[in-house]
Amino acid sequence: MENKDLNGLTDAQAKERLKKDGLNEVPEPEFNFFKEFMSKLWNLSAWILEAALILECILGKWIQSLFVLLMLLFAAFNGATQKKKSRRVLNTISHELTPTVSVKRNGKWKQLNSKFLAAGDLISLKRGDVLAADVKIVQGQITVDESSITGESKAIKKSVGKTAYAGTTVVDGDALATVIATGSNSRSGKTINLINNSAAPGHLQQLLTRIIYYLCLLDGVLTLILVIAALIRGQNVIEMLPFLAMMFIASIPVAMPSTFALSNSFEATRLSKEGVLTSDLTGIQDAANLNLLLLDKTGTITENKTAVSQWDNLSKLQNKEVLALVGAAIDKRSPSIIDTAINDYLTEKGITPDIPNSFTPFTSNTGYSMAEVKNYNIKLGSFKQLSLIDKNADQEAKNIDFTAGRSVAVLINDKLSGVFILRDKVRSDSKKALEELKKRGIKPIMLTGDNRRTAEAVAKEVGLTGKVISIHDFNDKTDVNDLAGIADVLPEDKLKMVKLFQKDGYIVGMTGDGVNDAPALKQAEVGIAVSNAADVAKRSGKMVLLEDGLTPIVKILDAGHRVYQRMTTWSLTKLSRTAELTMLLTFGYLCFNYIPMALNAMVIYTIMNNMVTMMIGTDNTHITYKPESWNMLKLAKIAFSLAAGWTVIGFGFVWYLVSHNYAQGTVSTMVYVYLVLSAMLIVLITRTRKFFWQSAPSKSVAIVQIIDVLLTFTLALLGLAMTKINFTNLGLTIIVALIAAIVIDLFYQPIMKNK
């Protein structure tokens, strides 16, 4: 008697229930701009600004206090705005990662986007699935990880009649289940999102923390020098406090979070249009440093389409009868590529599969699927695993060439009854894409469950040079440079390989699709889940491909290099500009007995710089053809060399002005104009490996720079918040800044070209 629980819904019933209950999703909670804004006022950078604000108020510097307050509010407002934009980008991408579910509609199994699930739907669950709704088990048994909703890591068994909840992951078993609650009505009450909305900068955060450390160290030393000099000269140190406070304020990377958010969300959006969904933004950044890539053969190097190239009937039954029995052991609910290939072969031969009395899907633990038909027990799966059951299998199959492709064995009543040889077709773009990867200094290594000779043939076809070894011969002494591929790989072997390569100092990328690939995908710096990956693999990887093949991986590398170049520009610019400002003012005070820049001008200068550096996140970049590495010492040397050049020329300029009896106020305004122009030119110099006049910045960077420069000229000529200067003095300052930029770039450009 048929169980009505196994019938599922019709399309009409599902449509009616969806109309009543809504889609199986919960709207994302609205972004609270005010809450985000307030959080930006409660961090280390904000505390320094707030302390400076209080100090300025105590000293009665009300105009400066207003500027510091505006800077503080701008940083909070801009940070909240960029967070909102970044979240919108990630939310848009995450909806594209909604899992598909195997559901029975109108009596037929089909794959359906999980947001169209309705209460009453019959769905199939297998290892690796992430439940998209609350369900009741009606057949079979599964083990689920409920840590996502309970916090408990212990797996829980769910048998017939038990309820499993949305957001939990199936870690073992298979079952049929009826949907009992969707969307807001489910226990978790939220959409299953395969994206990790983490915008954490990963390795880059460590670099930027060190940049702040260097700047604060420099400021601390120069501040100490200024205080000691003032005490020796008998001057009022209290009057210098506003300037000292502004020197520290100038060091605060107010625009850093915004630059990060802008650059990463910019690249995440770009990649989503190119067939790559980003589930963790650190993956984009680490892609620039990638130097070793472990590649699944099937679906990445070869087409995700496998066909039977040879069938050998080793039983005493007629060929048609054996193939009909094989058809009963094919998974029709959630077919793998092997199931599909064999099913296509049966269809081509006109074979109608037998209907099984019972069916057990394939698991990596058993290595085969199993069906019971009449008096026959059929096992379909790995020859290696099945030969452990039939001890005579090797002898029976001695005439079969297992090197011709992937082998799938058939056991009938635990006796070897046939062997399929399946072959994957190499993708047309694989050879070209692999050449591109190698040209970029990345070592590609093919991973496959096939035997060594089959793997060698594929490696040769796609131009992978080196040896192909068995996983059994792989150890921590294996020379990576001699490897083209590793054969006989089981999914659980991949984590071991990733860790070994990382231990040797490699930045590892890996592609994967299965449940057992998840730990390795999570461990790799750039874990890439391929288009047909299990839900749990997609959740573990930092990238999810929407298309098969290697070409999208090249796009990930491009994105990583763009982020790297922008952050390099940001780092060099921030270090050199801040060092120039603090050194020029310190040496000016020591030599001329006054700080050669008005306090108001210093505040305005700091605000303008942050406006430009924020826009670096959208700048045009060039793609390099080698893995990058963050060398903080080298960056610091380059930045301080730049700062030294600008400081020496700037100090010479101030010396000239003082020796020609320019008034202190005029000198102060001209120094302000010089510093703003030098800051703009430093951005242009550090953003390219060509001479700065040979490479155009992005429209956003150019517009903000033009606005900053025009505003600077206007303030200087009208004498707003500073001493007024004439057109002659302005022209002289512009000429000095341009000459300085050209001279400095003549030294800087050859260094960066050979970097």
Automatic annotation (TrEMBL):
Pfam families in alphabetical order:
Cation_ATPase_N, E1-E2_ATPase, Hydrolase
Question: Single GO cellular component annotation?
Answer: membrane
Which residue intervals define the domain Cation-transporting P-type ATPase N-terminal in the entry? 2-61
Give TM segment ranges. 44-77, 211-232, 244-263, 575-595, 638-658, 670-688, 700-721, 727-748
Q: What are the protein's UniProt keywords?
A: ATP-binding, Membrane, Nucleotide-binding, Translocase, Transmembrane, Transmembrane helix
Q: Where in the cell is it found?
A: Membrane
Q: How does it sit in the membrane?
A: Multi-pass membrane protein
Query: Do you know which SMART domains this protein is assigned to?
Result: Cation_ATPase_N (SM00831)
Cross-referenced InterPro entries? ATPase_P-typ_cation-transptr_N, ATPase_P-typ_cyto_dom_N, ATPase_P-typ_P_site, ATPase_P-typ_TM_dom_sf, ATPase_P-typ_transduc_dom_A_sf, ATPase_P-type_domA, HAD-like_sf, HAD_sf
**Which GO molecular function annotations are given, in alphabetical order?**
ATP binding; ATP hydrolysis activity
What PANTHER family does its record include?
CALCIUM-TRANSPORTING ATPASE (PTHR42861)
- For this entry, the protein name equals Proton-efflux P-type ATPase
* Species this protein is from: Lactobacillus gasseri
